[in-house]
Amino acid sequence: MHVASLHLYPLKSCAPLAVDALDITPRGPAGDRRWLAVDADGHFLTARKHPRLVGIRALPDARGIALSANDAPPIRVDSPAPNATRRSVVIWDDRVEAVDAGDDVAAWLSSYLGIPARLVHMDDSVHRPVDPDHATAGDEVSFADGYPLLVISQAALDGLNARLPSPVPMARFRPNIVVAGVAPHAEDDWRRVRIGGIEFDAVKTCIRCVFTTIDPATMTRDPAGEPLRTLLTYRRTPKGVAFGMNLIPRGTGPIAIGDDVTPIA
Question: What is the pLDDT of residues 34-51, one digit of tens each?
Answer without folding.
Answer: 999 999 999 999 999 999
